[in-house]
Design goal:
alpha/beta, five-stranded mixed beta sheet, three-stranded mixed beta sheet, 8 strands, single chain
């Protein structure tokens, strides 16, 4: 499954030496795990109660915790001090790009001939490989090639996808980082599980996308904001020992997060605590990415188009990347015939709201997704035709009258729905598990009108010239 829980999560602390010896799982991050042996798996006395009460850690009550103001002040001060420490220490550190690759059989063996992260054999375009094969293509393969590359616009979209998609080598590096970070977190919270969620593992990622971690502690109970800040502060204290992690700071937002930058991959990272919905969403999105070869190339390009025109950033009051993917999937569900099914309707047991997130299977052994149909749609539109249809569909969409839902399809918005009873929203996209509004960040009519204008102008541009370049030939600010 997309969340990639390693088998070693359940190993007891005493096996840490053996765990480190398996350098294939940790790669260049193995050095940081050596330090954990010196620290040991001693638990912090102020731990969090863990899964099924098996841990000996002490449960925290709100009364024992520092106040939110104290935690926020400490987080701010520590962040400032750590930033300065990072800069002071950097002068004395080895250039990380000159460190040797760690051998699987001998951690002490050095091999300077290969730089760190030198993964040979980048993925080739599988369709180029098929076309160059001397054997004749089957009728079904010719059909799939036509859907993906049957016209100029489709070829452009497929080319963009093959150049920007996340490679397996990049994903493996991210998993190595996850393992190193988790090993340090486990010195504080023994039963912790760390999932990579979002674009990195949902099938829609690129090599440059940020790494979003979802940390599950204990029984996955909802933490109070104060407990979350306290947990993140404890974790920050452990992660500062990993010298390749920079700018580590707790952000005391309404949903607190721990931010840092991995100087090896240059990826920005963040950690949230006990957010199971993000894990379930990643599982669901990954399943949709498998349904049809046209889904991911279409969604990835639309995200780039949205970013270019300033409508793909929830931080600035527009659509989040997750909201954009929901728009794409629902459009593909509403096509006639549909390109993808309503997975939660057809496979309810695979996508349950109550599923235990730590039991969600790993991507490479995902038996729960084997029954999901792949490339079985009767829709014969090419990738380019679907892009044209996407912009036409949303340029005419009645945003104020409908709720977009990949769980049950588009349905009318009425006064009884909680979107209306809670707050009036300009765009309504139902979250498939929590049934909240994925587009709740859009609170300004000006931003809402900008989003509508973007779809309208894109529709006009493609009708005039069905070329990718036409979608970047205009400005919403004119």
């Amino acid at each position: 499954m997309a969340c990639y829980l390693y088998n070693n999560i359940g190993r007891p602390a005493g096996n840490l030496s053996a765990l480190i010896a398996d350098s294939s799982q940790y790669g260049i991050y193995t050095r940081s795990l050596k330090q954990v042996i010196k620290v040991g798996y001693s638990c912090c006395s102020r731990g969090i109660a863990t899964l099924e009460g098996q841990s000996s850690q002490t449960s925290l009550s709100d009364a024992e915790l520092p106040s939110e103001n104290q935690l926020e002040s400490t987080a701010s001060l520590n962040a400032t001090q750590e930033l300065q420490t990072d800069h002071d220490m950097s002068d004395g550190l080895e250039d990380i790009n000159t460190l040797p690759v760690l051998s699987r059989n001998n951690l002490q063996q050095q091999s300077s001939s290969k730089p760190i992260y030198n993964y040979e054999g980048e993925e080739e375009n599988e369709f180029d490989e098929m076309i160059s094969d001397q054997s004749p293509l089957s009728a079904s393969m010719k059909y799939r090639l036509n859907l993906l590359c049957g016209d100029k616009l489709s070829m452009q979209l497929w080319d963009h996808y093959t150049k920007t998609r996340q490679t397996e080598a990049t994903l493996e590096k991210k998993m190595q980082l996850r393992s190193a970070v988790l090993a340090n977190i486990k010195t504080v919270y023994k039963d912790a599980a760390l999932h990579i969620v979002g674009s990195s593992t949902n099938g829609f990622g690129s090599n440059s996308c940020d790494i979003d971690f979802s940390l599950i502690i204990g029984k996955n109970d909802d933490f109070s904001r104060r407990k979350t800040l306290h947990a993140l502060s404890n974790i920050r204290g452990k992660l500062i020992s990993l010298r390749y992690l920079k700018d580590i700071r707790v952000i005391p937002a309404s949903v607190p997060i721990l931010e840092f930058r991995d100087s090896i991959s240059n990826n920005n990272c963040d950690i949230t605590v006990n957010n199971p919905t993000g894990i379930r969403n990643t599982h669901l999105m990954y399943a949709y990415s498998l349904c049809d070869d046209r889904v991911v190339p279409l969604a990835k390009f639309i995200k780039v188009w949205g970013s270019h025109h300033g409508i793909n950033s929830s931080a600035y009051g527009t659509l989040s990347s997750y909201a954009v993917i929901n728009l794409v999937i629902n459009y593909l569900q509403e096509c006639d015939p549909p390109v993808v099914p309503f997975l939660q309707k057809e496979f309810p047991t695979s996508f349950k709201k109550t599923s235990r997130v730590n039991a969600i299977p790993k991507r490479r052994t995902n038996a729960s997704l084997t029954d999901i149909p792949r490339n079985s749609s009767k829709n014969e539109q090419t990738l380019g035709q679907l892009l044209i249809g996407f912009f036409q569909y949303y340029s005419l969409f009645k945003w104020s009258n409908n709720i977009i839902s990949i769980k049950k399809g588009k349905f009318p918005l009425d006064w009884r729905h909680k979107f209306i009873t809670a707050k009036g929203h300009f765009i309504n996209i139902e979250e498939p598990f929590e049934e909240s509004n994925v587009a709740r960040s859009i609170r300004s009519r000006k931003k809402y009108e900008r989003i509508k204008a973007a779809f309208t102008l894109a529709d006009r541009a493609l009708k005039k010239d069905p070329d990718i370049k036409s979608l970047f030939s205009y400005s919403l600010d004119d």
